[in-house]
From TrEMBL:
This is Acetyl-coenzyme A synthetase. PANTHER family: ACETYL-COENZYME A SYNTHETASE (PTHR24095), ACETYL-COENZYME A SYNTHETASE 1 (PTHR24095:SF14). It comes from Arabidopsis lyrata subsp. lyrata (Lyre-leaved rock-cress). Residues 627-705 form the AMP-binding enzyme C-terminal domain. GO terms for biological process: acetyl-CoA biosynthetic process from acetate.
Amino acid sequence: MKIASPSSPILTVVSSSGSLDPKISGSLGSRILPATQRSSPSDNLLLHRTMSSNYLRHVESMSQLPSGTGKISQLNAVVLGESLASEENDLIFPSKEFSGQALVSSPQQYMEMHKRSMDDPAGFWSDIASEFYWKQKWGDQVFSENLDVRKGPISIEWFKGGITNICYNCLDKNVEAGLGDKTAIYWEGNELGVDASLTYSELLQQVCQLANYLKDNGVKKGDAVVIYLPMLMELPIAMLACARIGAVHSVVFAGFSADSLAQRIIDCKPKVILTCNAVKRGPKTINLKAIVDAALDQSSKDGVSVGICLTYDNSLATTRENTKWQNGRDVWWQDVISQYPTSCEVEWVDAEDPLFLLYTSGSTGKPKGVLHTTGGYMIYTATTFKYAFDYKSTDVYWCTADCGWITGHSYVTYGPMLNGATVVVFEGAPNYPDSGRCWDIVDKYKVSIFYTAPTLVRSLMRDDDKYVTRHSRKSLRVLGSVGEPINPSAWRWFFNVVGDSRCPISDTWWQTETGGFMITPLPGAWPQKPGSATFPFFGVQPVIVDEKGIEIEGECSGYLCVKGSWPGAFRTLFGDHERYETTYFKPFAGYYFSGDGCRRDKDGYYWLTGRVDDVINVSGHRIGTAEVESALVLHPQCAEAAVVGIEHEVKGQGIYAFVTLLEGVPYSEELRKSLVLMVRNQIGAFAAPDRIHWAPGLPKTRSGKIMRRILRKIASRQLEELGDISTLADPSVVDQLIALADV
């Protein structure tokens, strides 16, 4: 299926880098371009990119703090490398040595760069974009945006008219710059001692071979290609090959069930699906080809047939003889790709042409196809990677995320390679064969930047510290956290034990929809507080609003929104722009609504408090409650289900399911296991409920709405906070649920 560039009427125009008149500020801080930059009286030149003239007013007082000295309002100052962080209210400074070589080395430098990115976004991002290769430069208009549904359709465009290719900038540009012999990928297999590597020249050749195969089989610009692969080198190769020829890749995490994969195939209608026969994760073998076969059977029944299933022969996991095969559709990767030329012409695309689709969970039960375009995403991921990790050309970088999630797109493949980085790709489980595997890998490849999820940190915390301390880890200089807020105790363990109290932690907040980091520490600039995402990245203006959408000043808690667009923002939901607007822009008109709660402390630091909608963040994976509920009610003995998130020691959030059975069906442990298995089969193991709570009935209003607030309190045993239940259709249900809490 062809995936066209997102388009809708453009209501605002920003010309290239003219300064904006600070005198025109109004109550909403509206800004107007100088008259000399207005192309015609008919142009709508009033910028809806509203902002306060003092956009970092909450942190201005801290901007002059000398690195490594001083205290701030009862906060203990700790200098990295000199003492342990032990309290949640510690203020932790980078060492003078680290700051001295950092790309952003002080609060003042950060403030100056952020100020320019807000005062002159067109000029700021144009300067950065000019460092990349463009076959044709964009015009005078750098970006256009409308984020206010009251003013017309939501629309975001950056560098429109600019012609480029992200694969060319990731690979060819680096080879031409003399980095052809530099290692692009170190691949570490599931089993100890199984590894491989590719230089940038070798990676380019393999990408071109696959790209030529896809072209030869009719894949053209705008066509969708589904990728269902584990963390083999072939996964980033496949992504880059699609990008090279202008095809739109949709990577599906190779832990999703056949039903979930089929949903995505039916939605985007790919010409080709790329997979492998099996993978080993830890001691377990997962037959991916069997899952793909079932998904293709299901999608075919729904009228969507895929002509080619290109299958990588992963001989370390299984054999060809044990792989089911459909002649005429299934093709062995190794039998055909090596026959193709190692060079492939680039398909030059517009900055606003689609790059990839990535499906993420929504609260309605149907996954959302988040669509990212090429130019703005390229510039934003490259820039956020460079500054948030203080990247140096000598770094070896390892992000433990799978490419089936946005982190693997932005910070395994595109962001690092746009900077010419050496990347570690790991196939296996982080605790196999034991809990020291991560640090084995760090020492083996001299990893200097290690980016992982709080879930993994908490999991490793539960084991003896000897698994960490028996390894050197001296190569590490920057740590990172992604996927969910990291609790202060996990932050301290990560910092003290893994980083030996000398490595700053880039605790990043962002989303599939944002494309790249939105709020993040810059390692050499700001002192950190354990658990805080710190301050906004360049070009980002976060605001906290109340239930009415009114911005709250100073120390506060509320809903996290963003004013104005940024280059990495997603442009639409595939095939459903109305849902795009309804989900993200209608809740608080004039803002992008993140769906997250947030607290800003008295020093201006941002603390993410978790989801406020019906999406649960499990180990960094966003799972819609409606998806889990839909899977549960497919069970023949389940009449109704309601799912909420609860705190989980390791995963951050766990899935807690209230299940009402059909009349006369008794509770049993076998039935409980059967319900969990139903979810595993329908969605995937990562979405399996942690707890099934039997529910004779559910707390509903008279109109039939389930009161999830009450269910959350019961699930978390906060019974004294149930509040008023008199408005329920049947208040006695609450007592019944409490009585069954331990059944």
